[in-house]
Amino acid sequence: MPASDLVALARTPSKAEGLGVNVRKADFDRPETLGPALGGVDTLLFISASEVGKRLAQHRNVIEAAKQAGVKWIIYTSLLRADASSLSLAEEHFGTEEALRASGIPITILRNGWYTENYTDQIPGALAAGALIGSAGNGRISGASRPDYADAAVAVALGTGHEGRTYELAGDGSFTLNELAAEVSRQTGRTIPYKDLPLEEYAAALASFGLPDGLAHAIASWDVGASQGALFDEGHQLSNLIGRPTTPMAVTVAETLKSLP
Q: Of 49, 67, 235, 75, which is closest to residue 158 (Cα–Cα)?
């Protein structure tokens, strides 16, 4: 597909300069911007918004605008097992899925599992503190890299036969935070243990690093969900979609360490 056929929607279009595609202003909180932004769009790759607690209303704005603009197909990035997950993130995602189904527009749901980077982004702090902390216990996390999930979205958008499908996407392998800490230790030559903390203690630690209390508690609760199996999946639907194995945790660790100053 030529770049001239692609449209990117951005709240601040200047931040998307240099992509080589048409960039249009679109603000999920301002419905009047969405109709013009979606004009002439046939397929919408709908990446879920980032403001937890506001997303369902924002997503409904997008869906209504897509209906009015005549969008023919929406691909939405949801959450692994959004219809049954214990994670607090699931409610807004599943609510969006229901709104999409009610819209009458053909849809495909990509239920993304955890990004390995959600944990490897913590490596600099772990190296500084001498330990990786969390509340995930011995829960196994079927993580995959951000590029893995991006490749899946591209494969669906450029493929055929995906309308009406829901995909549960996760990494081929899984790891515990103990195993992640051991891999960081192996690659750095340092001893970086994993310290498992009760939810409230982990949330307090995150808040002490500058995170808002609500977000700190949410992140800690997601770890607890991981300890209960919420982030584990053995379906291999992600690797089947992208036609290759997903990125191993060790590779993402290496890439993270390489990026450090």
A: 75
Q: Are strands 43-46 and 7-10 parallel, antiparallel or unpaired?
A: unpaired
Specify if 11 maps to a domain.
yes
Q: Per residue, what are the HEC states of the chain?
A: CCHHHCEEEECCHHHHCCCCCEEEECCCCCHHHHHHHHCCCCEEEECCCCCCCCHHHHHHHHHHHHHHHCCCEEEEEEECCCCCCCCCCHHHHHHHHHHHHHHCCCEEEEEECCECHHHHCCHHHHHHHCCEEECCCCCCECCECHHHHHHHHHHHHHCCCCCCCEEEECCCCCECHHHHHHHHHHHHCCCCCEEECCHHHHHHHHHHCCCCHHHHHHHHHHHHHHHCCCCCCCCCHHHHHHCCCCCCHHHHHHHHHHHCC
CATH code for the domain of 77? 3.40.50.720
Say how many domains are in the chain.
1
Residue 162 is assigned to a structural domain of this protein? no
The pLDDT tens digits for 110-146 are 999 999 999 999 999 999 999 999 999 999 999 999 9
pLDDT digits (tens, 9 = 90+) for 139-193: 999 999 999 999 999 999 999 999 999 999 999 999 999 999 999 999 999 999 9
Single-letter amino acid code for the residue at 33 = T
Confidence of residue 49 (pLDDT cuts 50, 70, 90): very high
Q: Note if the pTM is more than 0.90.
A: yes
- Is 78 part of any domain? yes
β-sheet bridge partners, residue 76 = 46, 109
87 lies in which domain range? 3-112
